[in-house]
Amino acid sequence: MEKELKDFDLVIFGGDGDLAFRKIFPALLLRLQDGQIKPSSRFIVVSKNSRDTSSFTGVLWSHLDGDLLKSEPELAANLRSMIHYVQADLMVSDDYKKLVQALGQDRQKQTLFYYSTPSFLFGTISRMLHEHGLIDEQSKVILEKPLGYDLSSFESLNSEVRKYFQETQIYRIDHYLGKETVQNLMVLRFANHLYELAWNAQNIDNVQITVAESIGVETRKEFYDKCGALKDMVQNHLLQLLCLVAMEPPSKLNADSVRDEKLKVLKALRPFDAQTVQKWTVKGQYTRGEIGGVSVRSYQEDIDAFDSTTETFVALRTYVDNWRWAGVPFFLRTGKRLEKRYSEIVVNFKRVPHNVFPSESKIHRNKLIIRLQPEERIELVQMVKVPGPGGYRFQPVELELDYGSSFGKRFPDAYERLLMDVVRGNQTLFMREDEVRASWNWIHSITDNWEKEGVELKLYKSGSWGPGDSVIQPDDYWHEPDTVGK
After folding, report:
1. Region 35-56: what's the mean pLDDT?
2. pLDDT confidence of 202, banded at 50, 70, 90?
3. C-alpha neighbours within 13 Å on the C-beta side of residue 418
4. What is the pTM of this model?
5. What's the CATH code, domain 177-471?
6. Percent of the chain at pLDDT above 70?
7. Rounded to whole angstroms, how far apart are CA atoms 47 and 434?
8. What pLDDT is recorded for position 360?
9. Which of 244, 293, 362, 456 shows the smallest number of beta carbons within 10 Å?
10. DSSP character for 235?
């Protein structure tokens, strides 16, 4: 039986920002409704904006599920009573006295500090908390990405935080790891003998990981132009997905055992050199186009900078150089202003070695398709005979596990799960510092060679699938959503 959760204080720095309104507070509301959070817990919002608790709550209510709040007045009243707003400049030491007062002197609960701020503030906030005696053994800190813009900036901000928090107190969040289907990868692989037997270079031809977005940079233009698709998406989301696909079975299902295996994958990733960065990487930038019948602007128009060379699309071909995956290409692809929004992992198994059927029809290979969003589901594509006389006519058909129809209930959002894992002290779904360091090392093999070799930025039309075909094997193709085979 699951251990009962104790009450806690959650301090959200930057708690009146977009992330808090869209993800953090909706997640807290639903966990409160489910009884996993006690009304005696508190949510303390710290921001320099001129608001008080009442005005902040009024703004927050417009972002939450209005029907839920109206239908459950006790839930709404509980949430309202738990919220406290502290106006403070995070760079001013005296302002932290307001937080000390809000938390109180007799603090028996664990305190969670959520840094929903630009990463350059991480060190300052940590130092101020320490100077005002707000960090103890029960304290935990949640760090939102980006965790730096390169290895040196990560080491700098990480060392600042580590002066005041132990590694066991730090939770580096990647919301992709909280998705239901991502976690199901562990069960799929390690609780099904059939898949684990086939999960190797002898049976798998290639693995494709796609995170496609139909939106542009929206309100993130200043950040995004400094970062680009490689650092914004590949360094964390796509590499974490790759690790879960490629890792060895952990000896135990605990945080360090799982993260030890993920680290081995990151260290086994083949670094890029001057030749492979030209052949096996593509970087692109979106131009004007049409998505869903609506005309959209180019990236340079979106950010009002017509000399920008920042990539909004990346496609890579890489290899995990170990015994299990020797010679198996992993294809990674992510981009903005693509035709559809979706994220999925496709495991392409090898073709049968010989066609014994007299038909000239092509035998498609088996595929395991793990859809992460927008509809979470798992499909196994296999060849079946078309009913009726006339010989062996066959076609690929998918066997589908649709989470919604199979389990008939709402699945918790990633932030719901991850926030509760912080309360529980479970770090399995959070990145350890050596993981982040290893991922940045590998990313540098791309960025350094991009710069050294002058790799060309390819333009692609908004609403297309981007310019990533050249990294795919000559006899292969990118799997597109809602298709079975070609």
Report:
1. 94
2. very high
3. 27
4. 0.92
5. 3.30.360.10
6. 96
7. 31
8. 66
9. 293
10. I
Structure token pair of residue 83: 């919220």
- Angstrom distance (rounded) from CA 12 to CA 190: 36
* Those residues with Cβ within 8 angstroms of residue 121's Cβ, 6 or more apart along the chain or in another chain: 13, 90, 91, 115
pLDDT for the residue 386: 78
Compute the distance between CA of residue 457 and CA of residue 454 in angstroms, rounded to an integer. Answer: 9
Q: Which residues contact 59 (CB under 8 A, 6 or more apart)?
A: 16, 21, 51
Closest CA to 45 of 75, 6, 88: 88
pLDDT value at 338 more than 60: yes
Residue 110 parent element (H or E) = strand 110-115
C-alpha 317/C-alpha 330 separation (Å) is 6
Q: What are the φ/ψ torsions at residue 141 (nearest 5 degrees)?
A: -125, 135
Q: Is the pLDDT higher at 222 or at 215?
A: 215
The residues carrying an active-site annotation are 237
What does the domain layout of the chain look like in residue ranges? 8-172, 177-471
The answer on pLDDT for 12 being more than 80 is: yes
Residues 6+ apart with CB under 8 A from 465: 212, 338, 339, 478, 480
Q: Locate 366 and state its tokens.
A: 């088996």
Residue 27: pLDDT above 70? yes
pLDDT digits (tens, 9 = 90+) for 182-192: 888 888 889 99
**Residues with Cβ within 8 Å of residue 30, at least 6 apart in sequence:** 412, 413, 416
What are the strands, taking DSSP E only, across 393-456? 394-402
Token couple for 330 = 């992993």
Dihedrals φ, ψ of 25, to 5°?
-70, -40
First to last CA, the chain: 48
> What pLDDT is recorded for position 3?
56
pLDDT in tens, 228-276: 999 999 999 999 999 999 999 999 989 999 999 999 999 999 999 999 9
Report DSSP state, residue 91.
Answer: T
Topology adopted by domain 8-172? Rossmann fold (3.40.50)
Per-residue pLDDT tens digits for 98-108 = 999 999 877 78
State the pairing for strand pair 457-461/281-287. parallel
User: Three-state DSSP class for 46?
Assistant: strand
The conformation of residue 240, written as its DSSP 8-state character, comes to: H
Distance from the Cα of residue 349 to its chain's centroid: 25
What pairing do the DSSP bridges indicate for beta strands 294-296 and 289-291?
A: antiparallel
- CA pair distance 27, 23, nearest whole angstrom: 6
Q: Which residues lie below 8 Å from residue 291, measured CB to CB, with a gap of 6+?
A: 214, 337, 339, 462, 463
